[in-house]
Amino acid sequence: MNIIADESKLKSDAGAILVIEKIKSFNLDDNALIYYNFPFYRGETLEELIQAHILYLSKVYGIIAFRTVASASYLDAKIIKQIDELDSHLFSKINKVEELRKGRRDLKINITPIVVVCDNSQKEEEVVTIKLNEIKETIEKNKAQELTDKEFNILVATIEGTKRSKQKKDRDISDEKLTKGKILSLIQQQETVFDLEQKRAALNTIDSPQRIRGLAGSGKTIILTMKAALYHLQNPDSLILYTYFTKSLYGQIKYLIEKFYRDFSENQEPDWSRIHILHGWGGVSLKGVYSEACFDNDISPMSFPEAKRNNSANPFGYACMTLLKYNIKQKYDLSLIDEGQDFPLHFYQLCYALTKNRRIVWAYDDFQNIFDTKIQDEKETFGKSADGTYLVDFSRNENQLQDIVLHKCYRNPKRALVAAFSLGLGIYNTKVLQRLENNQHWIDLGFAVEEGDSSDGIKMVISRLDENSPMDTNNYFGNNTIKFKKFNDIDDECAAVAKDIIKQIRIEKLKPDDICVISLDEKHINNYFQRIEKHLQRNDIKVFNMLSAPNNNIYFSIENHITLSSINKAKGNEVGMVYIVGVDAAFTENNIDYIIYRNKIFTAITRTKGWVVITGMGDCFDLFEKEIRQLEENNYKFIFKQPSKDSTNTIFRRMDERQSLINQINKKISDLIRTGLQTDDVLKMIDLNQKK
């Protein structure tokens, strides 16, 4: 049984703790979920919020919405109305889902609101009241038809608001053949159900800084957009900042925030004047955090050429650092930073300065760092206050949810992700180019350490756990996830790529906007795209060349157009099929050991939800092929000797040891409770082990 709660707030709610501990002690359904102060819905007015106190969710015993009161005398008309409205909202949402109905108005589960009175007082009211010792009987009476695993997932997705969060595309799937188009349609039909780590991150907004880390496709943007929507729902007058690096990510961010908000507000639209979705820098034609902060504080913004003259390596960081010399006004009640790996530390400090009450959340992925930005720990990133203490220091353990690691990747097929890692780290290069700090870091990222302890010179054997690449359709991809081919010259390469794209559309039933071409050869990128575009246009296939798009473009794809993109502009986005051309440019003598190129390869491959085709020319392509062939021969495992810290780049875990232990203990306690042990038993076992 898993509890979804901000523990720091739950600890101060004695009634809720009593009820939750009672439920846990019964061991009625190990897979049940308990939500604290969730879900909540917008009432008839902006000021009115309908919120569950404790929601018990079980595929065996249905839904029970517990409300605790110290005494029956507190049950006034207002509380009774809130309980009735919550019941009505829950029924209305679930009744719209065909898979959860037996008839037009008859659900497969029971939904029951219950008031738990913590003392012995009694009062005749319109709602059912029970004592603590009656909770087990109440749950057992609520049993109806037991849901299947699929039905329960649909129920959870409905309650959490993730149902239908995937943007649907209409494809021709009438053919009985299992085409690529049909596979993508099967993927988009799968319900988006948060795993435990995602639930903890998305459904709770804590009153202190929070870091969320995860690989490409682990759900970071979905989590941040849901946080924005739910916080706006709870605090309609508060001002929210959502900032990001890749301009083309704007459309996806706005879509998701609106989708989540409408789902919890009877289809009302968010007040966009209270949610600022801003690019990091901004400019004349595109608002940004930096440009708006300058405007709000009557400061002339620094132009890019001026910033570059002063600091060619980090112009944006220099502009933010210069702005921070002024006394910046606090503006936002909640700040959310997406794509955090691409922002310099002074931008973090600017966002912190703009944010009230330290309520700032940032999400990042070390492996998509394609701008040589140094990922700092939280203390270095945010700096110190006037009295010399760190502004953000996770070792103070302010909240158990302050540092969350997302282990699972939901976007990429397993083989694509493993190949991206292998090439990105240079595992089968003549020397390993990037190493992880320790075994726990591998585990954080969803891998298993079969051999080795990450000490210098030791043999390491690393594999990817199936459970952390949980896409049901992985079986459909098989060995076809990644293909690669060498060509004699750019003419042959572009002609072959265009021919294959035409085949994917006409035979495999992909839509043009399911496909993206990314060039790793930045020197010849225009040459590549012009040739590919010419071939496709001859066959009446339209393209959206992002290199030709205006500077303030905020879209990554256009319906029924193939996207042609640089890696910088593709970041943060996803498509069904990716073509990576000019890969040989990353394996020249000057570039083969260059970490930024390796990170670009990782980022390019991880844009795919399905298939990757990688092409190139000459001897440099042979070096790429040698690495990928070695990975295949080792059955998609990483087998290498751990290089020393001095000889290569170390990707640091950046997690305080205390926080790491807390995360591990929390996970193990949850695992033990699911086996039938009670919380008290687990704590006693820990206590006994400490005394030995």
Structural class: alpha/beta
**Unreliable runs, pLDDT <50, ≥5 residues?**
654-663
Number of strands: 25
List the quaternary state of the chains. single chain
Average pLDDT, rounded to a whole number, is: 88
Distance between the termini: 29 Å
Spatial extent as radius of gyration: 26 Å
Give the overall silhouette.
Answer: globular
Beta-strand content estimate: 15-25%
Main-sheet strand order equals: 1-2-5-6-7-8
Number of helices: 24
Helix content: 25-40%
Mind describing the biggest β-sheet?
6 strands, mixed
What features would you describe in this structure?
Helix content is 37%, strand content 18%. The chain is globular. The strands form six sheets. A six-stranded mixed beta sheet has the order 1-2-5-6-7-8, sandwiched between helices. It is α/β, with parallel strands linked by helices and 692 residues long. It is built from 24 helices and 25 strands. A hairpin with a 7-residue loop joins strand 16 and strand 17 (459-464).
Outline:
The protein is α/β, with parallel strands linked by helices. It is built from 24 helices and 25 strands. α21 links the parallel β22 and β23.
How is the secondary structure organized here?
Elements: E1 2-4, H1 7-10, H2 14-26, E2 33-36, E3 40-42, E4 49-51, E5 54-58, E6 62-69, H3 77-95, E7 111-117, E8 129-130, H4 135-141, H5 149-160, H6 180-189, H7 196-202, E9 210-214, H8 220-234, E10 240-244, H9 250-263, E11 275-279, H10 289-296, H11 304-310, H12 315-323, E12 334-337, H13 345-354, E13 360-364, H14 378-382, E14 403-406, H15 414-425, E15 434-436, H16 439-444, E16 447-451, E17 459-464, H17 474-477, E18 482-487, H18 490-506, E19 515-519, H19 525-538, E20 542-545, E21 561-566, H20 567-570, E22 575-581, H21 595-605, E23 608-617, H22 618-633, E24 638-641, E25 649-651, H23 657-674, H24 679-691
Parallel strand pairs: 1-2, 6-7, 7-8, 9-13, 9-14, 10-11, 10-12, 12-13, 15-25, 18-23, 19-21, 19-22, 20-21, 22-23
Antiparallel strand pairs: 2-5, 3-4, 5-6, 16-17, 17-24
